[in-house]
Amino acid sequence: MTNAPEPSVAGSPTYIHIDGQDIKIVAKMSLPRVVVFDNFLSLEECEGLINGVEHKIEQSTVVDETLNKAVAHSARTSSGSYYHRGQTELVARVEERIAKLLNWPVENGEGLQVLKYEVGQEYRPHNDYFSGASSSFMVSGGQRVGTFLMYLNTPARGGGTSFPDSGLEIAPQAGSALFFSYINADSSSKTLHAGTPVLEGEKWVATKWLRTGKF
Ligand code: PD2
Ligand code: ZN
Q1: Which ligand minimizes its atom distance to the CA of 162?
Q2: pTM of the full predicted structure?
Q3: Could you tell me which residues come within 8 angstroms of residue 125 by beta carbon, excluding any fewer than 6 positions away?
């Protein structure tokens, strides 16, 4: 293991095979550090992750580091829910696949967050790392160093994940996944990003945040 999550894409393989899943490497970028994958999840796995939380989704929150708690905010209009790490056989299998793909221990990952966006809903530009060195969110696991975002369905229009500093936008496609990392946890990582508004249909994603230490 290295000191940062990173897929083994040196040498430009077109596929990475993990436990019977042929994961396609679609695109990579060095700054921001971004790698896009297709066929990370099967369609059955996408449906399973949605079905497991659909009955209990609630208005999403954002981290307020001043109040030291998660609060509702107009910048994030989606709804969502969480899985604890290893909560179901499916969740454990997906987490194991992420750990192998990114060469990063399962124990250094937060539980999976699942988000649902309806037409007009979005997640405005933000960073996933914590800005305050003394944030209470860092007591367990330390700083976030990477994000692995899995697209669970394909909205008809809109709902891409954009990186405004570089003009990059990833289109959501069921089963595909976006990895980006920010080892320095500051703006030099160029990982400011947004979930653009869904224009038609709905969008479901699952996010795994990766920490420096055991979470
Ligand atoms: O749903 C997205 O595309 C998105 C965009 C930005 C999700 C997140 N951030 C996140 O979960 O942090
Ligand atoms: Zn984010």
Answers
A1: 1
A2: 0.94
A3: 162, 164, 192, 193, 194
Which 3 state secondary structure label does DSSP give 50? helix
pLDDT tens per residue across span 36-49: 999 999 999 999 99
End-to-end CA distance of the chain: 17
Residue 104: what residue type?
Answer: W
Amino acid (1-letter code) at residue 137: F
Alpha carbons 72 and 123: distance in angstroms, whole number:
12
DSSP string, 65-126: TTTTEEE--TTB--EEEE--TT-SHHHHHHHHHHHHHHT--GGGBPPPEEEEE-TT--EEEE
Distance from residue 67's CA to the centre of ligand 1 (Å): 22
Q: What burial letters (b/e) apply to 110-145, b meaning 16+ CB within 10 Å?
A: bebbbbbbebebbbeebbbbbeeeeeebbeebbbbb
CB 150 within 8 A of CB 41: yes
Ligand 1 binding pocket, CB closer than 6 Å = 115, 123, 128, 149, 161, 193-195, 205, 207
> How far, in Å, CA of 176 to CA of 46, rounded?
10
What is the tens place of the pLDDT at every residue in 75-117? 788 899 999 999 999 999 999 999 999 999 999 999 999 999 9
**Amino acid present at 22:** D
pLDDT digits (tens, 9 = 90+) for 171-201: 999 999 999 999 999 999 999 999 999 999 9
